[in-house]
Design a protein that fits this description.
Blueprint: H1 4-11, H2 14-32, H3 36-45, H4 53-75, H5 82-95, H6 104-129, H7 134-156, H8 176-195, H9 207-215, H10 227-253, H11 257-276
Helix pairs in contact: 4-8, 4-10, 4-11, 5-6, 6-7, 6-8, 7-8, 7-11, 9-10
Length: 285
């Protein structure tokens, strides 16, 4: 005959039973908790919200002004503003014998071609992986950061001439390296602005933006009632301020890599911001 004492001995005390069930529960929770790699993968697959994305593109506008003013001072061409490069390219055949920069058209052609390649690449990246997916934006701006840092390192190391105001009658073909790389990465900014739904801040175009500001029927509307006008005006100011800052840094240092280190650092901050950017909210109807 089984006594209560023997039953407790065979099944354990009540405290032992509760400890065993608690440990089993902890084990099940640990099994359900996803691995860090799975959490990271899930995090990168999320679509981010476009709220306050204009702040990112305004920063990119500042970067465009900073880099373009530096590259123009060094090489007489642009890497973002392709309207000016088109004019330089068109003037090439008629002024090649009368200008101190007979091969300036070649630099402009390189910039235009590489910018177009960049647009092709970054647009396909966005379409393939999703334009608002966190992984897409992090990858795009991380790649832009790496390219800017590579150019800065090449100039810092003396591989490419980095002295400002050194344009000679003969082109230094190594100059094509920073021009091509920086033009390629600049395309990622305008692709990003369209993906984020803030195409009024292309960050690499001024002419159409100024036209949109001046032709806005609500140009005199109160400050809080015309967000697009405000963004365009701020973008213009950011490009202008970036150009001014780039000019002063170049004048003080006589070199171009310092502006590029700053531009690359800002793009690293943007990349980090996208990694922690809030998730897109889904509204259930």
């Amino acid at each position: 005959m089984t006594t209560p004492e023997s039953h407790l001995e065979s099944n354990g005390s009540p405290d032992q039973q509760s400890d065993g069930s608690a440990s089993n529960e902890d084990g099940r929770l640990r099994q359900k908790r996803p691995a860090p790699s799975d959490r990271l993968r899930s995090h990168l697959r999320q679509e981010v919200t476009t709220d306050h994305a204009d702040l990112i593109m305004l920063t990119c506008s500042f970067i465009s002004g900073l880099v373009d003013s530096t590259i123009y001072n060094a090489y007489g061409t642009f890497v973002s503003m392709q309207t000016g490069n088109t004019i330089f390219l068109g003037l090439g055949p008629s002024t090649s014998r009368t200008t101190s920069k007979p091969y300036g058209w070649a630099k402009s052609l390189t910039s235009i071609a590489c910018f177009c390649l960049g647009c092709f690449f970054f647009s396909r990246l966005a379409r393939f992986s999703g334009p608002l997916r966190r992984a897409t934006l992090v990858t795009s701006f991380a790649l832009q950061s790496v390219i800017v840092f590579v150019v800065a390192a090449l100039i810092q190391g003396g591989v490419v001439n980095g002295a400002l105001d050194t344009i000679n009658t003969d082109i230094m073909w190594k100059d094509e390296i920073p021009i091509s790389l920086l033009s390629f990465q600049a395309a990622g900014q305008i692709i990003g602005s369209r993906a984020l739904g803030v195409s009024e801040i292309p960050s690499v175009v001024l002419t159409s933006m100024l036209c949109d500001i001046a032709s806005d029927p609500n140009i005199a509307a109160p400050l809080k009632s015309n967000a697009k006008r405000n963004r365009r005006a701020l973008a213009f100011c950011c490009i202008l301020v970036g150009a001014i800052v780039g000019g002063y840094i170049g004048q003080a240092t006589g070199r171009m890599q310092f502006d590029l280190w700053i531009a690359g650092g800002l793009k690293v901050l943007i990349t980090t911001a996208w990694f922690f950017w809030p998730v897109k909210r889904v509204v259930l109807v």
